[in-house]
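Thread: quick sanity check before group meeting

JM: Hey all, I'm pulling together slides for Thursday and realized we never actually wrote out the predicted structure for the chain we discussed last week. Dropping the sequence here so it's in one place. If anyone has concerns about the input, flag it before I start.
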Amino acid sequence: MTTNNKTMSEKKQEEVVETSETQEVAEAKPAKTEKKSSKKPAKKAAKKPVYKFDRNKSYQIAEAIKIAKEAGHEKFDASVEVHFKLGIDTKKGEQQVRGTAALPHGIGKTVRIAAFVEPGNEAAAKAAGADIIGNEEFIAQVKKTEKTDFDLAVAEPSMMKKMGLIAKILGTRGLMPSPKNDTVTADPAKAIAEFKKGKLSFKNDDTGNIHLIIGKKSFDDAKLIENFQTILEIIKKSKPSAAKGTFIRSINICTTMGPGIKVQGE
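JM (edit): ok, ran it. Output follows.
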């Protein structure tokens, strides 16, 4: 019995020794460390300050310009735009609104002009400031590529028949010359010089709106106000006799990327 008891005791002691040796080996092994992610935490986009104003209120033009300047957060000298919503039926030709306006302080932007003139008037057009001479070769190029690298087209009456080849291309982009906005004229050099100095050509779009630039954000408020008042009076006088009811339904002013501010029209 004693021998058997000793044997059992010895076995227990051996098990204890083996267990502690296993624990010592396990403790000796270095613990696994978690790999640190090499990815840098994404930077949170800086929140743009929000300029609060009443979107349902119509402001006097002086206050509207100040709000538009503050609400626009462009990092460049943005244009100041005015948008007129007109009460016209755009499907009726007699209710189309188009015209020109010479703003007293310009718009702070150089207009790129294409002059569609006969060979004898090309030199005069260039001297007046035309950027492109729209001869027959240029007309063929526009027809082929459908590229129009200009903001305004001025043409002699004799060139209009030749321009019929690109009338659809120019028309859909609001670039087709017309006698109604002084872009079809017997004196293209004079017209080009006037447009280069800041004269604007305008026409309503398919939704009955007119969109115009009245200057730059860097302009003094007084200059923007004067430019606005000038174009407002011209738009009022452009009301077609066939148009009934309220002609100017709403006016909004904004910077290039800023929110629209409602403006009182009177």
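AS: nice. Residues 15-22, 24-28 have pLDDT under 50 and may be disordered. The first strand starts at residue 79 and ends at 86.
JM: adding both to the slides.
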